[in-house]
Specification:
Layout: E1 2-4, H1 10-13, E2 17-23, H2 33-40, H3 43-46, E3 49-54, H4 59-67, E4 73-77, H5 78-86, E5 94-98, E6 105-110, E7 125-129, H6 133-144, E8 153-157, H7 162-167, E9 173-177, H8 181-188, E10 192-196, E11 207-211, H9 213-218, H10 220-239, H11 241-251, H12 257-268, H13 284-296
Parallel strand pairs: 2-3, 2-4, 7-8, 7-9
Antiparallel strand pairs: 1-2, 4-11, 5-11, 6-9, 6-10
């Protein structure tokens, strides 16, 4: 991170531009379009920040990039990161805003399998990315839904292979993300059935914006300006999915506008907090309940507190 001044005049020197790098949760897809929207619409520039946007590839690579100082901000699956922090694998991060107010992980299948409720998974095979948050949380989800998790065979697979496995009926269901529903329907050419984890694990957040505790301590004003700008981009994106997807398509021409619109529209319902709270809110009570759920599932040991993983002081108040 560095600063630069626009000219030699006192007026311009006072308008320092902070240069930072940000990494998306996963690639350049609809759910991450808001970062490019914030850049294209000038929200970062208005906040005095020049942002290099990098394409992420999941929690571990993103947390590694943050730890190495390759990026100063990023997005990732919050629940997965909490699990990693609880295990002591990655602890040098703090969530500063929620992108999704509920987890977007889900069981997904096609209607022809006859699976329409969690209990229908008994004796079936579910493919999911090996070691993913979907796999780690499945036992807790299953028990809450009245299903014995041991009666379901979990098959590890590459994320990019999941839809193909389901389309060819090599498996009965997928552990995946809600926003991939359209992609599965396109590949399988069948009606898709979605069983969201949030039906039973409602206190878990989805993606979140993160930074380091060091940056929060050293430059809280930068963290505040960045948070406000990227949340403006998020809010604009869900209100204007066509424009947001078009902006993304300019950055990533191989990703169609239609695909972007589909993802943005699908995630819109998960972005706004309940009770009229500001966008991005991460209520400490809910964070505490999230930790308790993960501890109860046996994936996070006792001792983790909201302050270890969240700093919600940068959310705009209105």
């Amino acid at each position: 991170m560095s600063g630069c001044s626009g000219s030699d005049s006192d007026t311009e020197e006072s308008k320092k531009t902070d240069k930072v790098a940000y990494i998306t949760a996963f690639g350049a897809v609809g759910r991450d379009s808001f970062a490019w929207v914030a850049k294209e619409k000038g929200y970062f520039a208005e906040a005095g920040i020049e942002v290099e946007i990098k394409e992420g590839s999941g929690n571990v690579p993103n947390l590694t990039a943050l730890k190495a100082g390759q990026v100063q901000f990023g997005a990732l699956d919050f629940t997965g990161a909490v699990i990693q922090a609880g295990k002591g694998e990655f602890t040098d991060w703090r969530a500063i805003a929620a992108v999704h107010q509920q987890t977007l992980v889900a069981v997904m299948t096609t209607k022809d399998t006859g699976i329409s409720a969690p209990r229908d998974l008994t004796g079936k095979t579910m493919a999911t990315a090996a070691g993913s948050v979907t796999e780690l949380l499945f036992p807790a989800y299953a028990r809450m839904a009245g299903l014995d998790p041991n009666t379901v065979k979990i098959q590890g697979a590459q994320t990019t292979a999941l839809n193909g496995l389901m389309a060819s009926r090599q498996v009965d269901a997928l552990g995946t993300f809600l926003l991939s529903r359209g992609a599965l329907a396109t590949v399988a050419k069948k009606e898709v059935v979605v069983l969201p984890y949030s039906d039973y694990l409602g206190d878990l957040f989805g993606n979140a914006i993160i930074t380091t505790p060091a940056l929060i301590q050293q430059n809280p004003d930068l963290v505040r300006r960045f948070t406000e700008a990227i949340l403006k981009g998020l809010q604009y994106s869900v209100k204007n999915p066509q424009e947001a997807a078009t902006i993304l398509n300019k950055v990533k021409p191989t990703y169609t506008v239609a695909a972007g619109v589909g993802e943005i529209e699908a995630m819109a319902a998960y972005v706004s907090p309940a009770g009229g709270a500001p966008i991005g809110s991460m209520d400490e009570v809910r964070v505490s309940r999230s930790i308790a759920i993960l501890q109860g599932a046996g994936v996070v040991p006792n001792g983790l507190t909201p302050k270890d993983i969240v700093d919600n002081s940068f959310i705009p108040k209105g």
